[in-house]
Amino acid sequence: MKIQVELATSELQNQSLLWGESSAEKGEVFTKPEIVDLMLIASGVVDELTSIGTRIIEPSCGQGEFIIAIAKRIKLNYEKANVKLTLVQLVNLIKAYDISSSNIDIAKSNVRAVLSSIYTSQELDLVLKAWFIHADFLLADFDEKFTHIVGNPPYIRIETIPTALLAEYRKRFVTMIERADIYIAFYEKCLDLLSNKGVLSFICTDRWTKNRYGAGLRSKIAKSFQLDLFVDLYGQNAFMSDVMTYPAITQISKNKQKQTCVLHNPNVTVDFCNNVRQCLTNVKVNTLDGAELIVRNDLVKDDKPWLFGSSDELEMLSRLEREFPTLEETGCSVYIGAATGSNKVYIVDKDLDIEASRKIPVITAKELKSGVIESNSNCIINTYDDNGVIELEQYPLLRDYFLQFEETLKGRHIAKMAPLHWFKTIDRVYPERATAQKLLIPDIKSELTVIFDKGSYHPNNSIYYVCADTWNLYALRAVLLSGIGQIFIQAYSTKISGGNLRFQAQHLRKIRLPVWDDIDSRIRTELTRIGRSEDTEEAKILVAQIYSMNEKEKQILGM
Ligand SMILES: C[S@@+](CC[C@H](N)C(=O)[O-])C[C@H]1O[C@@H](n2cnc3c(N)ncnc32)[C@H](O)[C@@H]1O
Fold this sequence. Notes:
It catalyses: a 2'-deoxyadenosine in DNA + S-adenosyl-L-methionine = an N(6)-methyl-2'-deoxyadenosine in DNA + S-adenosyl-L-homocysteine + H(+). This protein is of the alpha/beta class. It is 39% helix and 16% strand.
């Protein structure tokens, strides 16, 4: 059985190498030296090059851009610091794969030229033979792990890959779902080859960070890895040839901390590269020359699209801002739940013995933690009536209740500002809003949560809520949960509160929305139906229609 499997694999290896020799598209796009340097420095390859245990892999080395840069560092260490790696150390340092023998030959001769002043020709024969492997990386077997994995995996449309090979890749790599490009398999295999303290740094299109076919890989990363660094290079020419893509560097490790350093379109200089390394190894660094340093701790969650606030997301938002009215302009209102100044005193059991008209059923953020309303029998004390703050004397039971807490209540800032009304809550309570249908949005999670309330509760502080005269609230819920709400809020609130998202009223009000009556009635009915469920995938399709999204925008939405 084992022999059969080995035969089948070697047959596939042959096919892959035949393909590698052909003129077919194989994703040959080579990385520019300054970008290679940034990745080698930021991922720690440069710092750890002379450490005994360092093992580097380049899974698709092309003409050797990464390996040449590493060889140059080895040479520099020798010339500047007189540190020479032993032959054994050197031989074990690197493994570089490619299916194209001509690429490998070019890479070998370039690396030889760099190292020939330090090692003899016979030594280099040994080193290059060990380093460069003419084989399909995705089919290769490994019995060791690696401390550093760097490269620029090929992106090849699946139609171009020989059928049997593609079938084998799909069989081996579970994250290669739907129309996943081959680079997804490179990510999966390389992540599995990382040692415990290992670091992976790839430059690649960023498409998978948002779209559907990247979901499996995102989920794998969310489960067992950590996104340390994301650098978008959208406006830049990161490659030797012009390629129409959105390149980005993703650096991934098994670190336990959840922070991601996000850099948009940096000015990549030597100082910048060193600075990035410092940021990643020293939490105290909080500015960077060459790009604004954004630290996020809410980026990677399950298989959700990663929203970085990068230029294509912002482009989409500005189109939506130009073409659609704000949520409030379409007839929806965003309110803030009532703050009391002392929930211990004002949030009470429904059976508390005070005048019934003063008790309004309340929901607090605590009861929304699970994403649904956990029923409760609490009420908020309403210290207002139609004329403003109540006359306490008219409510003797309430007066006696408040007198028990007189000192606490009078100690509040609001009571000091208005001593006559020392018993009032900070915010007004509106009984009619408690009985209105609304969407509750708690400001407690990094992910937008939208809960429908049929009119049972008055929201307490840390809950925002939306009422609407025009929009059906279930349909609105479907729209907000499709991902578009998260994109808006993320863009508007990314930088506040140390990278935590805040679903503040001011950001919610800026969300753009089509006018309800302008939406096709079939879509309205569908949205209303979906808004009763949690089916965000179906919602995305309809949302893409009502916002007339193009292909790029659909990907941002995670389609
Ligand atoms: C995007 S290029 C990157 C080259 C190099 N890493 C760089 O950045 O300059 C991708 C390379 O992957 C190679 N390649 C494609 N499929 C491969 C496979 N299954 N295993 C190994 N290499 C492969 C191609 O021949 C090509 O040279």
